[in-house]
Amino acid sequence: MAEKQHLNGAYYGPSVPPPTSRSYHRPGRGDGSGCLGCCCGCLCDCILGLICKLICTIVVILGIVVLVFWLIVRPNEVKVHVTDASLTQFSYTNNTLHYNLAVNMTVRNSNRRLGIYYDNIEARALYQDARFDSDNLTPFYQGHKTTDYLNHTFQGQQVLMLGSTETSEFNKEKSDGVYNIDVNLYLRIRFKLGVFKTGKFKPKVKCQLKVPLTNGTTSGAAFEPTKCDWDY
Predict the structure, then answer these.
(1) For residues 160 and 220, is the Cβ–Cβ distance under 8 A?
(2) Distance CA 88, CA 100 (A)
C-alpha cells in the first residue's frame, strides 16, 4: 500500500481519474428520419418540376394555336364611319333639350373569313356626356367583305340638367352654330367562321361628332365624315 506523502503541509493522494465522457445522440441522425426527409424533398422537387413543364407546354400550345388561327383567319377590325349627320333642331330652354338629329353610318367588315351577327344594336345620343335619346336598331348578319348602312333619326325632347359650365359651353356652340354630339353604339355580336360560331361579345362604338345646325332656308358649315372608335 502506497504511503501518503506530505509536502509543505499539503496532502497528495493517488491521482483522480478524469470523468468518463458521455456520448450524446442527436435525434435524426443514425436512424431513418434523414432518408425520409431527403426522399420527401426530392419528391416535392419532382412534382414542382412536372407542374412547371406542364404549364410551359400549355402556354406554348396555346401560342401555336393562336398563331395558326391568326395566319388562317387574318382578322381585321370592323370600320364604322358616320358619313352624314343633319341637325335641324337643337335648343335648350327650361332645362329641356329639343332636338332633331339624323345620322347615317356605314359598317365595313373587311374580313375574308369572318362573318358577324349583330344580335343587338342600341344607339345612344349624348350631349355633354348626358344621354338625351336612345333606340334599338334592327339586328342583322354581315357577310365577308361587305358594307352595311345604319340610318337613324333622334327626335323629341328630353329633360337635361346642365350645370353652369355645360350651359356656358352650349351657348358658345350655339353662337358658333356647331354642336359636339356623341353617338354611341352598344353592341352584342357573335363571329362566324365556317360552321363555327363564337360566344357573344359586348363592344361599344364611340362616334364623336361636330354637327352644324341647319334650318329650312340656310345652312351652316358642312358636316365632315367621322371615323368611330371601338371600345372593347
Answers:
(1) no
(2) 6
Tell me the pLDDT tens digit for each residue of 148-162. 999 999 999 999 999
The CA distance from 13 to 5, in Å, is: 7
* pTM of the shown model: 0.71
The residues with which 162 forms a beta bridge, in sequence order, are none
Cell, residue 92: 335648350
User: What is the grid cell recorded at 22?
Assistant: 458521455
Residue 152 in 3-state DSSP?
strand
Nearest to 179, CA basis, from 99, 94, 122, 82: 99
The total number of residues written for the chain in this structure = 232
Residue 171 in contact with residue 105, Cβ under 8 Å?
no
Between CA 88 and CA 96, with CA 92 as vertex, the angle to 5 degrees is: 110
Q: Which of 91, 86, 103 is nearest to 158 (CA)?
A: 91
The H-or-E segment that residue 44 falls in is helix 33-73
SS3 129: coil
Mind listing the pLDDT tens digit for each residue in 173-214?
A: 999 999 999 999 999 999 998 888 999 999 999 999 999 999
Contact assessment for residue 110 and residue 145, using Cβ atoms and an 8 Å cutoff: yes
DSSP string, 64-128: HHHHHHHHHH---PPEEEEEEEEEEEEEEETTEEEEEEEEEEEEEE--SSEEEEEEEEEEEEEET
